[in-house]
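@channel sequence for tomorrow's demo:
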Amino acid sequence: MAYLNCFFHYVFRTKGSLRVLDGDAVPALYRFIGSVSENLGCHIHMINGMSDHIHIAVEMPADVSPSDYMREVKGRSSRWITERRLFCGFQGWGRSYFGSTFSKKDLQRVVNYISNQQVHHQKVSLREELESFFESAGLSEKFRYFVADD
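structure tokens (generated this afternoon):
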């Protein structure tokens, strides 16, 4: 039996960073992503975002890889949105995503950060936010590929 403590902060955006995630359907989308996560044995601590991207703080079991998790979340939610025609102009999710681990002692800080997206993005653009994430993770040289990957 593996005993792992796996906390991840993911950020993924709409294809072309289109600002289409708005209105009454957003909470339903977050609940749907929560149910996908639960079916994978994952526990979402916080999900929130803006009209062009979503942040998730999630605790994952040892048998779910980060890439499998994001493939399931993005794939299933894209189909769900499309089938229900929830967000006008939604063309799917961008191919890339950002993910970073964090420790349990940082959980509240990450949850607070994700909870305050609307306030945060009054001062900082998505590009600036992601660039700082890549820099903090030691991935600055990869940022240009992420930005161009739609």
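heads up for whoever presents: DSSP finds six helices and four strands in the chain.
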